[in-house]
Specification:
A hairpin with a 4-residue loop joins strand 2 and strand 3. This protein has 25 helices and 26 strands.
Length: about 750
């Protein structure tokens, strides 16, 4: 979507779909090349979804030149508006043909190589004569030609591209290994010596097979990440001249404008964020909020783009459209998070190219050393060093782990806005919670009630007064006394009105009643009223008449049902849990006692919270801050990981790394589990890759590995880290998550 022009020049942006990337080196090369083009303001690739965000100056460049530059590198690129399906089908079909030819040739060459492995070539007599041995070698060479010329072609193209741009990628040593093995075997075929056609073909087959599996795994891990993208409404039914007429006009959802009125039929996606002006239905918002139960909607209720309408027809007035919708914001944040890598992964990617260059030097030195020891083995040992150390495992699987983690969390209503939060959450030592709206629901509820003086219909009078006010305390009392909703008072009610800052007042059958604060209600008798000691940590509202106080209502912000379980789970993992709140200390201590938290501090200002978090960090703590209010903004900004509640203030959400869209703390607890598992898998993959190379390189240098051993070891090491990444899907899903909704 084009962005508004600035004072100096016009800026445009788009999203590209890329293909042909296999590792971090591919990403680095494309980003390096495109960023060199004139007018490029931003270019960033999402390794999980193979999409790229590009921003450019329209006076200096255009999207056609940008795509051409990527294609010239040997990769595929399409604008986001064009479907890559046909291109992907063609590429997949070609990849399968390359794999089939390599596999078929491998079986044939193995049959020809088998006698040579079993019986030494005789000098005088024997079953395998020199002529027959040469014939088998020539047959193996002819079968290897289509593998090298067709199946291995992608490796050669990528290697040539890397060398042209003075960049060492994984395909450079791969291509060197294949070509050196093939041409050295051709030489040995006609001039005598050992041949390794079987090793060359096996190397190509295993690499192609590994990359095919990797692409399938990548699609699996990116499916969860693309679920929200699939929810973007394509079309809308706009009502022209509503409410005068109900003429329907079909148009693209992206073309809707603010204040347009749209008709949403049962089963359709809501095309924009808006408010219901007519109709009654229920909406499935599970893939955006994690809430599996459909939410009832009627006139006056807000709806979000991408939600699925239920059985009723709704008329919705658009408030946010296009890229401004809640859904578009979620998609943008998810894709941005997927491009962010944990520091441990950035370290591996940073040194991948250097590692490749070092391996080529080591292979060359090894070959020169072996020339003086055993010249006939020098080339094969150098080839083994190149092949066995291809750093596929260093660059594979990490993007899969990250996208899988982000997707799993998104399905549970936990939106990762910053990919680095995954590692930091796994390393966290302290979890700091705000109270109101975080550990509590942020809504007053009736906690206790006391009858001071028995009066007929006192609760009914209290309900009628409370239900006539929009004050949070009045709403809490009205909800608690809702059973009186169908009861009529057998008296005359006059002069009901609300006194600002005090409460409700009305005359019932000539008797004046007040419902509100203690000072306001008790002022009818001019006699002070002492609040019961048991209600000191609650908000107190009283009902009184001219004779004194009748009823006392103790109101409190109820603790979330899952707060205790979440806190307990964190404490079992030896995490320090604190409450930092601006509420009264006695109220904070009550909530802390209910949640089992020892360290709770109340009456704090925003700067106080900031200072506490900063002090913890100075002591070496890694702090996760969970909050929802504007006063949490500074502390959230200071914390190592900032978690904002989905219902919280906008400032807390903008300063967060993680957004809890579902507002369920148990989902946040699941987020910690996923982060720990994901970081553990990433570390396991990197450790395995390092250990493998530490063992394989010396073994290849001393000549213990033949080229086919090296090919098998390299491919197996890559597959191991890919399969290890899939273990993230073995985590038990929370019961409320509707996994089947992804397939629907």
């Amino acid at each position: 979507m084009p962005t508004p022009p600035t004072a100096d020049h016009l800026i445009a942006s788009d999203k590209l779909t890329l293909s042909g990337m296999h590792c971090a080196a591919c990403v680095q090369l494309i980003e390096f090349r495109v960023r060199q083009l004139p007018g490029i303001e931003l270019f960033k690739i999402n390794t999980a979804t193979h999409k790229a965000d590009v921003v450019w100056d329209v006076e200096k460049n255009n999207i056609k030149n940008i795509i051409s530059a990527i294609i010239q590198l040997g990769y595929g690129a399409l604008p986001s508006a064009q479907s890559p399906d046909e291109f992907e089908k063609k590429e997949n079909k070609l990849a399968l043909w390359r794999l089939f030819i390599a596999g078929f040739a491998m079986m044939q060459v193995m049959m020809y190589a088998f006698p040579a492995y079993l019986v030494p070539v005789p000098q005088v007599d024997g079953d395998l004569t020199p002529d027959l041995d040469k014939l088998l070698k020539i047959a193996s060479m002819l079968i290897t030609v289509p593998v090298v010329g067709f199946s291995a072609l992608p490796f050669f193209k990528s290697a040539w591209r890397d060398l042209r741009y003075r960049h060492i990628g994984m395909d450079v040593p791969v291509s060197l290994g294949i070509l050196l093995t093939f041409f050295a075997s051709v030489w040995s075929t006609f001039f005598g010596g050992v041949v390794y056609y079987d090793s060359a073909i096996m190397f190509v087959f295993l690499l192609l097979g590994a990359r095919l599996i990797e692409s399938k795994v990548q699609k699996k891990t990116s499916v969860a990440l693309q679920v929200l993208t699939q929810l973007v409404p394509v079309s809308a039914q706009r009502l022209k001249n509503y409410p005068i007429s109900r003429d329907v006009e079909s148009l693209d959802a992206i073309a809707l404008c603010v204040d347009d009125v749209v008709l949403v039929a049962p089963g359709e996606h809501i095309p924009a964020d808006g408010v219901v002006v007519e109709g009654r239905s229920e909406c499935d918002e599970s893939l955006m909020t994690g809430e599996s139960v459909a939410v009832p909607k009627q006139a006056g209720d807000h709806v979000i783009a991408g939600a699925t309408n239920g059985s009723g027809t709704l008329v919705v007035k658009a408030e946010k459209v296009g890229m401004e919708t809640h859904l578009s914001a979620l998609i943008g944040m998810m894709e941005a998070a997927a491009t962010e890598k944990p520091p441990i992964v950035l370290l591996a990617d940073k040194h991948a190219s250097r590692f490749l260059s070092l391996i080529l030097v080591v292979a060359a030195v090894t070959g020169l050393v072996w020339l003086s020891i055993a010249p006939e083995r020098a080339l094969w040992i150098a080839i083994s060093v190149i092949v066995v150390t291809c750093p596929c495992a260093l660059s594979l699987a990490t993007p899969g782990v990250m996208s899988a983690a982000i997707g799993l969390l998104a399905k549970n209503g936990v939106l990762i806005k910053n990919g680095k939060a995954i590692q930091t959450m796994a390393q966290a030592t302290h979890f700091v919670f705000d109270k109101t709206g975080t550990l509590t629901v942020g809504k007053l509820r009736l906690h206790s009630q006391e009858v001071v003086r028995s009066t007929p219909d006192a609760e009914l009078i209290a309900f009628l007064l409370a239900s006539s006010s929009s004050h949070p305390a009045s709403k809490a009392i009205a909800d608690a006394l809702a059973n009186y909703a169908q009861t009529s008072l057998p008296y005359d009610i006059d002069a009901m009105h609300e006194v600002a800052g005090g409460g409700m007042e009305a005359s019932v059958n000539g008797q004046l009643y007040r419902l509100g604060s203690v000072a306001f209600a008790s002022s009818l008798t001019r006699q002070p009223y002492d609040v019961p000691l048991a209600m000191k940590d609650q908000s107190v509202t009283v009902l009184a008449d001219t004779h004194g106080v009748i009823l006392v209502f103790g109101l409190a912000d109820a603790v979330r049902e899952d707060a205790l379980a979440t806190v307990k789970q964190l404490q079992l993992q030896n995490k320090q849990v604190l409450i930092l709140s601006g509420d009264r200390p006695e109220v904070v201590m009550r909530v802390a006692a209910e949640c089992g938290i020892q360290d709770a501090r109340g009456g704090l200002s925003p700067s106080d919270k900031f200072d506490v978090v900063q002090s913890l960090q100075k002591q070496g703590a890694v702090v996760v801050m969970v909050g929802d209010g504007m006063n949490d903004g500074p502390a959230l900004a200071m914390a190592n990981v900032a978690v904002a509640m989905g219902q919280g203030a906008p400032i807390s959400q903008t300063r967060s790394d993680v957004l809890l869209m579902s507002n369920r703390l148990r989902d946040l607890d699941f987020g910690f589990v996923v982060a720990n598992k994901a970081f553990r898998l990433i570390r396991e993959n990197l450790i395995w890759a390092i250990v493998y190379n530490l063992v394989a390189i010396p073994a290849a240098i001393v000549g213990w590995l033949a080229p086919w051993h090296a090919a098998l070891g390299m491919s197996l090491s890559s597959l191991i880290v890919v399969l290890n990444a899939l273990r993230l899907y073995l985590l038990p899903q929370p019961e409320h998550v509707m996994i089947d909704s992804l397939e629907k």
